[in-house]
Amino acid sequence: MLCVITVLIALAYMFWDVNYFLRIAFTIGIGRLFQKKCGVNDTSTIYGFCTTQDVDIFLRHMNNARYVRELDFARFHFYDRTGIYENITKANGHALQGASSIRYRRTIPIFTAYKVETRLAYWDDKTLFIEQKFITLSDGFVRAIVLSRQNLIDVNAETLFKGIPGAEQKPTCPEEITHWLQSIEISSAKLRKKD
């Protein structure tokens, strides 16, 4: 019996990123047990620690791919704490990553604790714009800042925000998002010409 369980665990690790799914379950579970619900204008926070599994080839600091992975956990946590996830699933919709822009300001060294703060910066009928910050706990320094564009599929903003505090009034689009969208449009126009 122990041999069968060992083989099943080994197969699970071979065919799926088991740690990814365990971390999502852990992050959402901790949020549900110990954190209160929040509105769309609130900031949610998760915590992390840069281990030997997170570092790059120089073994000194977090590699770029790990930042993106942590963003997923923080975004799922935000969706769960606000009720966005529940509304998306009720509508049979999806929120898919359409674009992201990461600005690395300083590395996160190995064996360093940090937090990821997530907030909804802006939205329109078919898109959410999320801002996330990596902040080291020891000095409060913003190590990286990220903007991501979440495309809403089969659900609109009105349905998405139903019953969620703070969604009554859409914020003004921040200047950096306006410029970022212009950059995305220029890039898309170039690609359309090539096609």
Summed up:
The protein is an alpha+beta fold and 195 residues long.
Spell out the CATH superfamily: Hotdog Thioesterase
Please provide the count of β strands. 5
* Rg measurement, Å: 19 Å
- CATH C-level class: Alpha Beta
Structure report:
This protein is of the alpha+beta class and 195 residues long. The protein has one domain (40-186): Thiol Ester Dehydrase, Chain A (Roll). 42% of the residues lie in helices and 26% in strands. The protein contains six helices and five strands, in the order ααβααββββαα. It has a five-stranded antiparallel sheet, covered by helices on one side. Helix 2 (18-34) runs parallel beside helix 3.
Helix-strand blueprint:
Blueprint: H1 2-15, H2 18-34, E1 44-49, H3 64-82, H4 84-90, E2 94-104, E3 113-124, E4 127-136, E5 142-153, H5 157-160, H6 175-194
Antiparallel strand pairs: 1-3, 2-5, 3-4, 4-5
Question: Which tags fit this structure?
Answer:
Thiol Ester Dehydrase, Chain A, alpha+beta, five-stranded antiparallel beta sheet, 195 residues
